[in-house]
Each structure stands twice: as structure tokens, then as C-alpha cells.
Amino acid sequence: MMTTDRRLLLAALSASLLPMDAISAFSASTTGVRLGPARPFNFAELVETAKKNAGQPYKAPTARAAEIIHGIDFDAVQKIKFRPDHTLWAGQTYPAAFFHLSRYSNQPVALNVVEKDQQRPILYGPDYFDYRGTGLDPKPLADLGFSGFRILEAKPKVGDWLAFQGASYFRSSGQDTQYGISARGIAVNTAGPTEEEFPRFSEFWLEENGSVVTVYALLDGPSIAGAYKFDAVKNADGTVVMNVHCDLFCRAGIARLGVAPLTSMYWYGENERRKAADWRPEIHDSDGLALWTGKGERIWRPLINPPRVQTNAFMDTGPKGFGLMQRDRDFANYQDDGAFYNKRPSLWVEPKGDWGAGAVELVEIPTQDEIQDNIVAYWRPARELRKGDSLAFDYRLYWQNSEPAYPDTIAKVVATRLGRGGIPGQNPWPRDKQKFVVDFSGGQISSMPVRFDIAPIAAASRGKVDNAHVLKVVGTDLWRASFDLQIEGSQPVDLRMFLRLGDKTLSETWLYQYFP
């Protein structure tokens, strides 16, 4: 799974580029980007290349200046600066800058520019970077290559909004311009009985057409090869929408394939106060998995920090969407003015076309710190994948604060809290009971006056549920549902609850996995 190094890298990247305003002094005609000879480009040929690669034995990338690159640690990454006079598309809507190799991202990728169906390679040189203060000699780095790229904000804004770097990872800063959750091109054998593979984007082709940035990528790995096309748009409200198409070819049989994988971090939230080892009230990039099933049910599953690796599968056919969301966006609940967890983007996957039968799988890995990405969610097709099989997927990614097109008739879960069971102040309190308190907001209940005929429909995979009721929180539009769970033993319990008025469902379905 993920390592400490990846999160350290994300922190280092924020310091690896000179200020955006420095780029304004250079026009496209004076850019220092060096390009090789032109030749025709089309996506169909890229697909054929991926198919051909899958029919041949996998060749791992060759390390370049391995000892020097291993020495480029967190501090060195911060000191190496990309030179703005070497920016691609300088003076256009969205310029592009490049990443240097380091011990955290040590495999070079080939970069190309596409214009009018012609491709030209971007020729690497150490002069793309400023090494002052690093103690590095650029001469041995002459044939190094780039580790990835980032798309910069349109002037006069500073910073970047899209980046591809490392294996098949990519990310966007979303509406509040704060990086957090990442996406991947594909996941192979995540949290399975065999070692996880990390296929990589080995080559990219970049194309800009006004407000649209298109990224083509060639994927290669021990068990799979593929061709990808990403069309990315940054809207006026800061949301980033990406249309993704991929053609995949199995080089070998794959036990667990993860399509449209999302990777995030969850240490603890208001539902797991006992794990709050830090002074900050909550620490997470995402606080829950949201699902929109093929049958139209809306589901919310709060994330947990389990005692051991847990994989939960949510079986479905023709899913309408899923995502790892950061619903809690109140600074007061984090008190972090450096990491700004309240501004981290949510990431929603909208399948296009019929994805058939399968499951959204959620992998939760124990962690005792915020530097580890320990949450993964993806779509796992039901079909068995063998050598020579091919698949194609189309989907749309939304990097924004909340789910797109959420119905205004259905209430959302906005908080989950746990405490001891029984009635507050009543002694002795029952030591074999756990209380669950879930707050709902929005939908039809937000405008309802106080009433007492709304019912929480709660169930548990084992144990006994009692003392269930719903009350409106005075002075707010929140409705608070609570119940007690009487349980024995240490095995996990799967819980389910939603709000109902008569025969009408008022809320999404709350799911939870509780470890006594």
C-alpha cells in the first residue's frame, strides 16, 4: 500500500516551483522548452501500442543516476526549483511545468506536446531546474528525465491545479485550491493475498485547447498495459471536471482489478475520538465513502481507522457513482491552519455507460499518523480477468467540495458520534451497550418543524438495537438519530440506518462498521 514517502512528497511539491508571477516575463516565443522533431499522433495508435506491449514480457524501467536520485530527500526536493523560463505554454491559458526526479518519485517518464495532430518530444536537460543550495552537480544529471508535470493556474492566480507524478497517480487541488486526495489510473491486487502492483504511466502527451487540457498516457505494468485520455476543465467556481477514457489489456491474470481508484488519508474524526492522539480535533483528507447505486439508493459510509486491514465490498450492477468525500468543511473541527483539512477536495466518480456487475470496494488500513495514505476505494468488475483479456471504461471525475447533482429531497449524514449507551445521568450505566448518534441535514427534513413521527430504521449484523429515536436539534436544521447497540464479543458489527416518515424515505442510508 501507500508509504510515508508519498505524503512527504506531496508536502515538498508545494515548494518546488518558482512563483507564478515570475512566468509573466516570458512569452511563448521565448520559452526555454526544447522540442524534438514532429510526427503524427492519434489516440488509436496509442491504444495499439498498449495492446502490443501487453503481448510482450514486461520490462521494468532502468534506473538513472540511482545513487544521486536516492540522495534527493525531502529537504532537497524543496530546494530544487523549476525555472519559469522553461515553462510549456507560457503566456497561454494554462502553462505546464515539470517535476524533478527524487527518492520519492525515481522513475523518469517521457513527455510530449501535441498540436494539430502532431507530437513532439520534450527534450530533457538539467537546465530546466535551479539547483542552487542543493549541493548537486547538474552534469551527471544530463540524461535524467522528468518525473511528471503540473498544470499551472491561469494568471493572475498563483500555483497549480492539476499534477501527474509517480506510478499512475494524479491529483487536483479542487474548489478550495488545496491538494489532498489522489486518483490513480488503475489498481492491481490492492490489499489482496498477493503483493500489490503499481503500474505506471511511462509516457505522456500534453495538449491544450483554450480552457481544456488533454493528457494522453501510456500505462505499463507487470500484469497490465493501457492507453488513457484525460480531458480536464477547471470551471469558474474552482471545480475541476475530468472526462476519462481507458483501454486496458491484461498481460497476465489479475485477481483484483481496481477501476477508477481513489487514494486518501483518514486518521480519526468525531466518530473515533479515542484515537485522537493529536491535539487537533480531527485529521483526515476524506471522512466518508458516498455511493449512488444502480438501483438509485444513496449510501454514506463514514471512514474508520480499523485495528487491522479491512476490505468491504458493496455489490452493485451499473453503479451511478461513488466517491471519497470530505463533507466536514468547518475549520473549527480541525483547527489546522497549515494543512487546512477543511479545504481538501472530495473526489466523485461518475461511470459513463454500463459498467455491469461488480462492487465498489473500500480498503481501510490502520494508521497512527497523518503521513500515510491508508484509504483506497475503487470499482472491481465481477468478471475474472485472464491473460489476453481487454476492457474499456469511460468515467467522469469531479474534484470539488461535494457530490454533484445530489437530490434536494434526501437528507445527508453530516456527523457520526459514538458514546456509552443508556440514558445520560442515569446510573449505573449499561457497560454492554454502545450509543450511536447520527446527524442528518438537508432534504425535506431541513424545513420541517419539530415532530415526533420520524423513525430511524436501524439494524445490526449481530447484537440488539434498542432505544432508537429521532429529534430535531433546537435552533438548527439538523435532525439527530440515535440508538443503542447491545453487543458481546470483539468481532466487528455492520450497522445500517435511514430516516423514514410513514412509507417515505427521508435520508440516505448510513452504514457503519463498528469494532467493539
What would the keywords be for this entry?
single chain; 516 residues; mainly beta; Beta-galactosidase, Chain A, domain 5; Immunoglobulin-like; ten-stranded antiparallel sheet; 6% helix
What does this structure look like?
The chain is mostly beta strands and 516 residues long. It folds into 2 domains: 4-400, Beta-galactosidase, Chain A, domain 5 (Distorted Sandwich), CATH 2.70.98.10; 412-514, Immunoglobulin-like (Sandwich), CATH 2.60.40.10. It contains 4 helices and 34 strands. The radius of gyration is 24 Å and the shape is elongated. Mean pLDDT is 92; it is low at 1-6 and 13-30.
CATH architecture classification of the largest domain: Distorted Sandwich
Mean of all residue-level pLDDT scores: 92
**From the helix content, strand content and strand pairing, which structural class follows?**
mainly beta
**Number of DSSP strand runs:** 34
Main beta-sheet annotation: 16 strands, mixed
Oligomer: single chain
When the domains are counted, the total is 2
- Unreliable residue runs: 1-6, 13-30
Shape: elongated
CATH class of the largest domain: Mainly Beta
- Strand content bin: 35-45%
Within the CATH hierarchy, at the fold level, what is the topology of the largest domain?
Beta-galactosidase, Chain A, domain 5
The helicity comes to under 10%
Number of helices: 4
Report, as a whole number of angstroms, the end-to-end distance: 26 Å
Radius of gyration: 24 Å
